[in-house]
Amino acid sequence: MNRSATFELTLSRFIRAPREKVFDAFVTEKGIKAWMCPRGMGIPQASVDARVGGKYRVTMRSRDGESFTAGGIYRELERPKRLSYTWAWEGKDMPNMETLISVSFAERDGGTELTMTHSGFPDQALCDSHRQGWSSSLNKLVDTLDARGSAATVTLLGAPPSTYTWTARMGLAEKGVKYTMQEAAPHTPEILALHPFGRVPALRDGDIEIFETSAILRYVDEAFDGPHLLPQNIRDRARAEQWVSAINSYLYELMVRRYVLQYIFPKGKDGKPDRAVIDASVKEIGERLPILEKAYGERAFLAGANPTLPDFFVAPILTYVEKMAEGKQLLEPFPKLRAALKAVQERPSFRESAPPQKG
Ligand SMILES: N[C@@H](CCC(=O)N[C@@H](CS)C(=O)NCC(=O)O)C(=O)O
Known about the structure:
By secondary structure, the chain is of the alpha+beta class. It has helices spanning 19-27, 29-35, 124-145, 163-175, 189-192, 213-223, 234-264, 275-296, 309-323, 327-331, 335-345, 348-353; strands at 7-15, 41-48, 55-62, 67-78, 82-89, 98-108, 111-121, 154-158, 180-183, 202-205, 208-211. It has 12 helices and 11 strands. A hairpin with an 8-residue loop joins strand 5 (82-89) and strand 6. The radius of gyration is 25 Å and the shape is elongated. The protein binds glutathione (GSH). Glutathione (GSH) binds at residues 162-164, 186, 199-200, 212-214, 248.
């Protein structure tokens, strides 16, 4: 190892699994293949000779087919308590350094407290990039060993009646990602800890924290296997992003805040909805819906033949609009929009993610 190397990282995780199982996930081919790469990557090859002085080698592959191989030598194997091994990348484009990984496995509350130290980095940038990589890999380790799967690492914080929370839940369900739903209202301390503007939803994946629904679902789309939430060709993907942005910027405020919420939280005289505000919003919604109708063109959904992110953003909003006094009449003149909405409303992801019905 390079003597001038001084940078190191330490990460810990509690895993609801016995120490032996966690230890074996580091030193068996099957175990390593299940987790030892960041989310969004896979391990096509791993070889292991788990004895002191024995070698291991791991090849990681990104979705776009790029491969990265690391390997090293076991220095210490004390199952199920301690493990240490060297770590070096192969290939001329990879950092030329041999580093050391030490892992301890302690029993706690019927599970395992894992502490990993990776030392010997020649600079902070390499140390930080490895911290990110290991942090994401350890999320996968937890998912694999905990009976709850990814619901052990992925938590969505939000308020089920909120349209954005509904959209985020739909995206997670479409992708087939198990998650824990933590109910939290906007501007509460739990939300403010993750979202500096206090809005819902926010997502935590291990120690990775994300706010803004489109960023959350972008992350979910790239980090997990499962059907794509965005179109795969450049033009349609740009179109999908365009409509997500347009819905957020030009439709949500009008349809939800200035219309639906006027009924749900009336602020007019005698606790009734403010008629003037509602009338003005209805007029404006009537002017904007033709833009949305036109957007479908010959497509069944906003960015192509299949529902993608913009459809998951707009459906909860239009579902609320549809339920208000003027809603049916407002949507009536727009057959393409109604057909797309109905198709999304019929998806299991939409129904499973819907806010609980009152009464
Ligand atoms: N741009 C945010 C918007 C989130 C948002 O506005 N959420 C609403 C609930 S649907 C909220 O938190 N409202 C509380 C507030 O505005 O104070 C996103 O995409 O996540």
